[in-house]
Amino acid sequence: MMLSSDTTAELRAGDPTGLHRVLDERRVLPQAADRLDTRKDLWPDEVRVRVERLNLDAASFRQLERKHSRDGEPDGDAVRAEVLDIVASRGKMQNPETGSGGMLVGTVEEVGPDSPLGLAVGDRVATLVSLTLTPLVIEDGLAAWDGRSEQVPCDGYAVLFGRSIAAVIPEDLDPALSLSVMDVCGAPALTARIVGEYVARGAAPSVVVIGGAGKSGSLSLAAARAAGASRTIGVVPHRGEHDLLAGTGLADAVAIADARDPIALRDAVTAAGGPADVTVVCVDVPGCEGGAILATAGGGTVIFFSMATSFSAAALGAEGLAADVRMLVGNGYVPGHAAYAMELLRADAGVRGLFERRL
Fold this sequence. Notes:
Blueprint lengths: L4 H6 L36 E10 L1 H10 L1 E2 L2 E2 L1 H15 L11 E10 L12 E4 L8 E3 L12 E10 L5 E3 L6 H8 L3 H15 L5 E5 L4 H13 L3 E6 L2 H8 L6 E4 L5 H10 L4 E6 L7 H6 L1 E9 L6 H10 L5 E4 L7 H11 L1 H10 L1
Parallel strand pairs: 9-10, 9-12, 10-11, 12-13, 13-14
Antiparallel strand pairs: 1-4, 1-7, 2-3, 4-5, 5-8, 6-7
Helix pairs in contact: 5-6, 5-11, 6-12, 11-12
């Protein structure tokens, strides 16, 4: 049901960024808001989606697991209860500790007449904007979720704004697989762009991906190679992930190191053929900034994709190390990023195997 003109006049004017859904007294964008308006009625440029599944951001989920562990064992019921409380109190899924959220899969159930998103009722879509700015209502109490995985079966609804982004789910892929890929599709697209910049200047760069066996890490390795990297190095925390990544052929070398130990990370990358021209950070733990900087050659580039990154630590760390490196924040959006990530998944059996193993 669309808002009537009289009702709309009584409320805030619609805005493509979603300002009209912010309930805070101060004027902020939806992501910075404490609470969002979750009413079902749509403004003219909005879309309402019937939610089937949430994909919680890795940093957020790990924090919730750690918070609700007893004797080292996560308490799934407590994790589920906190997610429900966050969504009910804030009108969105935004972990108050990490500030991150995730994304969702669902079916379009209503489209406003002025929506620019190109979606139609019945489309199955994955949102490519964060749950931290998406009005969300959970209607089933997350009854089908045990609180022990990032992917959350869910019945409810969400609202997309005029400047939101969503992609129709490919029919040839399992929706859960599509959701996993689209959750991290910004990482390979930006990696390919940066590697391509080096190649355009006549330099084939070496690339290190910290967290190379993970979702964003494996896609970034595939993207780096496809874009013309001369050498790819994957960094993983233990032997199990080493063997997984080595078996895919995505990396020319696989190094084992604790990314939170800057000297160990530097030495492991150096032994594997570094330092790198481009370092991509794809891990979901804090404290990896110094090691990433030390693993990067002078004049190189560090791309931070982890929501656990402290950007003040990165900036001050580079200054303190007298490191002449360009540091980029991966914002999760590059034009065409979803389609590009899907192409990598379809084309590389190693990437697909890692993703399917994690479902």
